Amino acid sequence: MKNINPTSTAAWKALEDHYQTIKNFNLREAFQNNPERAKELTIQEGDFYVDLSKNLILKETKQKLVSLANECHLTEAIASYFNGEQINATENRAVLHTALRTTESNAEVEEKVTAALASKNKMFAFVDAVNNGTITTATGKKFDTVVNIGIGGSDLGPEMIYEAMQAYKNELTLHFVSNIEGDHIEETLKKIQPETTLFVIVSKSFGTQETLTNSTTIRNWFTDKVGDSAVAKHFIAVSSNVQRAIDFGIDKENIFPMFDWVGGRFSLWSTVGMSVALGIGSKNFQDLLNGAHDMDTHFRDTSFEKNIPVVLALLTIWYNNFFQAQSEAVIPYTQYLHRLPAYLQQAIMESNGKSVDRNGNRVNYETGNIVWGEPGTNAQHAFFQLIHQGTKLIPAQFIAFAKTKYNHPDHQNKLMANFFAQTEALMNGKTSQEAAKDLASSGKSKTEIDQLVPFKVFEGNKPTTTILIDELTPRSLGKLVAMYEHKIFVEGVLWNIYSYDQWGVELGKVLADAILTDIKSSKSDNHDASTKALLQKFFEINN
Ligand code: F6P
Predict the structure, then answer these.
(1) CA distances from 413 to 299, 403, 421 (A)
(2) Separation of 215 CA from ligand 1 center, angstroms?
(3) Which residues make Cβ contacts (< 8 Å) with residue 451, sequence separation at least 6?
(4) How confident is the prediction along the chain (543 residues), in pLDDT tens digits per residue?
(5) Which of 63, 293, 445, 519 is the most exposed place for a label (fewest CB within 10 A)?
């Protein structure tokens, strides 16, 4: 990949000039001035209808952003990504989650695709055997519960997918244990029967403190209840470090390999998805992969102007680097996607939260944006006040599915009415004249109107992108998640950062190990005054 400082490009300078002419741009007027605006700024790709027209852009803004992508050699970068070049250069690794879902042959990555297929086949054979009762518990019963033990990418993706796919789940019940908090383990163990539970330990490195501690505690609890001999039938592992999993005591046959060329936060498509595959069945899991592959081919083969992940990434750069927006919200109008924002927080912020560029220099521009959100309409009754009337610019992606899983037209009509109303309200706002008129028609006096109008004004002009999808299915979900993966990639390329390492999480881990040693020996001397006092308070409360 070329390592280009985006701010040194001609396109960046053109965008800076363009920003000066557009910063007072008014969305309401833009629609009045151009009846074709909605059509011109919408992308229909299969079951995805992506409306960009409520953004602070003109057609020419999009063209200028595309020029930036061209000057940063995005086309070549995409080829390097799909062809398995070591674009994760600080870890000397390829980034090939796309190979986990491909149905095409690609000479450059053939070996990896073959390995991925073998590993998927092994997983599906296991999943099918558990689901049809061929593989049973130690006492010959059918498993009814699965506990996924993992954290970060070994938890967030699988849990998000499982929650989203509740309408597709089979009779297995899944639980996810991630945090190192003993109370969380206890609360989970209360809900399960050891005799009929399968434990899936998921850790790419098999060296993560949380996962190893939780697995040890759970295994001890299990052997106390059921006996040591049952462990081999009830504990399986997913890891790229097979030896460590063996050393931990997992039967070699029960270890499902994953690969170092798949990053943890992009690994739900691999054997890391084992729990999900168990919970929704291998056919639905394959549909999920097919959906991701649909988005992969769209992303790889479509011109940038009509390329959904590219355009969404360019919008993020537009707001982040020119409007200086600090964050963006993701609001799915379905409870099924309630874990999507949490999943995206790792995927986006662990990837693009970098301040050193690919040349090893500190960047002189903003990178990784903050992402947050909650499902609508709940979000409307929580933080929408700030988006509507606060002082910060928060571009938002609104996601909804036109068809429901169950037949409640009244609910769906009301949900969708809110979905459409919010983006319209954020765009149009309410002028002081409109606010005064409303107050007058509700019978307020002139004095009351004068007092209240300032509080009733909505500035509007708040940018949103609407992603309307036909229906939430495994396939459309795979496509949606892959859309965000590629958006992250494009942002990283243009910001000239390495998106696929995560050195920033290491320091805290090292310090936690050192403090653990101190806690075990009730020592606090080696620390700053604040940490020392906190440790002493902790010792005091516990003694
Ligand atoms: O904390 C960082 C991290 O390395 C994530 O990137 C990763 O998803 C998570 O820890 C868990 O890692 P592992 O799967 O190796 O246990």
Answers:
(1) 32, 10, 12
(2) 15
(3) none
(4) 999 999 999 999 999 999 999 988 999 999 999 999 999 999 999 999 999 999 999 999 999 999 999 999 999 999 999 999 999 999 999 999 999 999 888 888 999 999 999 999 999 999 999 999 999 999 999 999 999 999 999 999 999 999 999 999 999 999 999 999 999 999 999 999 999 999 999 999 999 999 999 999 999 999 999 999 999 999 999 999 999 999 998 999 999 999 999 999 999 999 999 999 999 999 999 999 999 999 999 999 999 999 999 999 999 999 999 999 999 999 999 999 999 999 999 999 999 999 999 999 999 999 999 999 999 999 999 999 999 999 999 999 999 999 999 999 999 999 999 999 999 999 999 999 999 999 999 999 999 999 999 999 999 999 999 999 999 999 999 999 999 999 999 999 999 999 999 999 999 988 999 999 999 999 999 999 999 999 999 999 998
(5) 445
Domain 118-285, CATH among 3.30.460.10, 3.30.200.20, 2.30.38.10, 3.40.50.10490? 3.40.50.10490
Alpha carbon of 425 to ligand 1 centroid (Å): 40
- Nearest to residue 367, comparing CAs of 461, 494, 270? 494
Residue 122 annotated to the active site: no
In this structure, what are the phi and psi dihedrals at residue 159, rounded to the nearest 5 degrees? -65, -40
What's the 190 CA to ligand 1 centre distance in angstroms? Answer: 27
Active site residue 509: yes
pTM of the prediction?
A: 0.97
* Rounded CA separation 242/263 (Å): 17
| Known catalytic membership, residue 424 | no
Residue of minimum CA distance from atom 1 in ligand 1: 505
Ligand 1: which residues within 6 Å by Cβ? Answer: 151-154, 203-205, 208, 211, 264-265, 350, 502, 505
